[in-house]
Amino acid sequence: MITELAVERVEFTCGHCWHRWSADYDVQYYRDENGDEWEYFTRDGHGVPSPYDPQGAPPCSLCGRRWVGRLTARRSVPVPPGPVGTPRHRITTSRELHRTDRHAAPPLEANAHEQPQQDTPAASSGRAGHG
């Protein structure tokens, strides 16, 4: 049974080249028939390992190394049917005919948001321990 849905923005900072990037993950939290709690991550509709685990962290696009992400923002998505009085609309046509424009809408990709500012070479030369 799904217990929570959320969109989580995860930021990554490469500990080798200091490149920073972020990505949005859809997360489902659920409880199985044994009462165990699980989380399931997807990006762009595809199941992926947890970005908070070293094996699931995506590689840095500059040097290819993997660094665990950190949560920077989160939006909960209500699990249906929601509290009493939650607005909803009954679908009276077949699923395929309901709001047909949704089938042609472009995908909202996990990287389709503003990325973190990168340090400029001049700014990074003033870092402690570098220089």
From TrEMBL:
Taxonomic superkingdom: Bacteria
Region ranges (Disordered): 74-131
Skewed-composition ranges (Polar residues): 114-123
Residue ranges, compositional bias (Basic and acidic residues): 93-104
Record's protein name: Uncharacterized protein
